[in-house]
Write the structure tokens for this entry.
Amino acid sequence: MTVATRKRKPAEEGVVVFDRELDDLPQDLRWREWMARIEAVLFASAAPVGRDDLARVVGQGVSVETLIEDIQGELAGRPYELTQTAGGWMFRTRTQFADAIEAAADLGEQSLALTEMEMGVLCAIAYHQPIDRAGLKDIFGKEVSRDLLARLRFKDLIASGPRSPRPGAPHTFVTTETFLVMFDLQSLRDLPELDFHQKEEPGRV
């Protein structure tokens, strides 16, 4: 890969600017450099990177989608892949290596691990957002504890939504971009259809 990424502006001596176009490179090397730039940006980001951000490192009018398709083609057979999620792209390890990663890094103890009840409440919020605690009680037939909601908020899976129209205007809850990334969703429209009519046994969560 070339590293011809910066050049000087003739009109502004001493000012170094980012060279998006790479006009001094042959077409094939220019394309490879753009691919390398996109890979570098994605590797450096812990969150999905959107098209507009990736377009800033390649030539004007260049198809980011085509560059990404070429990168994906080169990743065939690798233990990681380039996927589209939450309105952007990010590198993720392939699912068949999950057991190996967990065995080596003990990922089961990471903060995003969820209990069965946390997962149930998170799903209810995802499908019924914005929803307040009273709405969650209607779904589960019992109170959902503030501690459980605080844990989901700490893991950045839920956030505060608009005030509820109920008396007292309580806070509502909505899901976050971290939620989309965790479940490999582009948007909430990608949620599968589920049946929430069955309620849990009465009691406190």
User: Anything to note?
Assistant: Residues 1-6, 196-204 have pLDDT under 50 and may be disordered. The first strand starts at residue 6 and ends at 8.
